[in-house]
Amino acid sequence: MNYLSVLLPLTAISVVTISATVNAEQPNAPPLQLAANYQQQDASRYWVSEKLDGVRAYWDGEALWSRAGYRIAAPEWFVADFPDTHLDGELWLGRGQFDALSAAVRRYQPQEEEWRQIRFMVFDLPHSNATFSERNAELARLLLPINTPYLAQVEQLRLSDNTALAQRLSDIAAAGGEGLMLRHQDSYYQAGRSQGLLKLKQFHDAEAKVVAHLPGLGKYQGMLGALVVETPDGRQFRLGTGFSDAQRQTPPALGSIVTYRYQGETKQRQPRFAHFMRIRQDEP
User: Fold this and answer.
1) Residue 199 is a catalytic residue
2) What is the pTM of this model?
3) Catalytic entry in 51, 199, 209, 219
4) N or C terminus: which one in the chain shows less Cβ crowding within 10 Å?
């Protein structure tokens, strides 16, 4: 499958500044910008960074908050040198370390030995009204004089064309990375799903709610065989691969949200080769 030949190029980027909308069910949820899927846009007009396998976090000048609006119990020494400016980024432990990171971030009592290895990787200034190119430079100036190993700016690259983008994706995947993020040079920070922010991976991924557990057979007797999950638009399907034995013994709870990867959809809009990745961890 050619992941760089999908649909039509983007012809315009809407210029919208952040709007502080509040979700009544999650009143503390920060108004984050969310990524749309890459669809053959002109890569030369975007800043490109690695898609980090971390936990999304929002710094409001005083505390770190999860995507769902839960306060993250970071140690005081971890955030002691953070600026009072709002920052959007990810807590990150390294490639392939999501499970260990998630466990550390979810503890109500943070463990020093775990947090000493974590970094807050910042990629945006949500309260700035500048374009992303301007925000990226502004962020560099903000972080330059701050001397802490726990705060860093995500590296942003400019690529010449879509061929270079494909090569960068291949290199990142070969090194164990998740994929790429693209931020349009002229886009403004916009709460919600935005065409100014794109994600590109070798596999698609999505989220669904667990609605049933199906029992296992054979070597999985007495354990989980598959999940029945439901997408936000009401489609249901079985998710039966990608689980460890430990996850089959203690499967994701009913009502929890899981992330899965897949390779396109059938004519009936069912995901092809759906593969469990993880439980979405919003609570610290």
Assistant:
1) no
2) 0.72
3) 51
4) N
* pLDDT one-digit tens code per residue, 215-254: 999 889 999 999 999 999 999 999 999 999 999 999 999 9
Which residues are bridge partners to 240 per DSSP?
none
Select from 243, 10, 162, 140 the least CA-distant residue to 132.
Answer: 140
